[in-house]
Amino acid sequence: MTTVFCRADSFCVRLLRKGNNFLQLTCGGGMLTLDRRNCEVAIEGEEPLQGVRSIPFDGGVLEAEILLDECCAEVFAGGSAMSMLAYNDGDGITFCADGTVRLWVTLWDVEV
After folding, report:
1. 26-36: per-residue pLDDT in tens?
2. pTM, 2 dp
3. Of the candidates 105, 109, 88, 106, which has an alpha carbon nearest to the alpha carbon of residue 97?
């Protein structure tokens, strides 16, 4: 399970799996878009998502639980060229891509 918390007006999180399966979350224009590729995604109050789906998002706190196997997470914030990459080591990881965006990701290995 991966839990993502983010406060941002614009961000992109891409979680990569072996075999080029991936999940990408983008936020912009008040909509959150999830692109699911062989991952299971649950947003609080929502059913697990499949495929590509956009839902309203107010730019507050995003919490997503993502089930996947060995993975890494790459963060792009606010259109900045700065990005941070973290591999799954089983520990909690804090991303701070710039002075305004903080992203906390906790990764676990699970059977898929």
Report:
1. 555 555 555 55
2. 0.32
3. 105
Distance of CA 15 to the CA centre of its chain: 6
Indicate the domain borders of the chain.
2-106
CA 25, distance to chain mean position in Å, is: 5
Q: Which amino acid is at 103?
A: L
Q: Cα–Cα distance between 60 and 9 in angstroms, integer?
A: 8
Amino acid letter, 48:
P
**19 three-state secondary structure:** helix
Separation of alpha carbons 6 and 89, rounded Å:
21
Q: What residue type is 26 in one-letter code? A: T
CA distances from 70 to 11, 23, 107 (A): 23, 13, 9
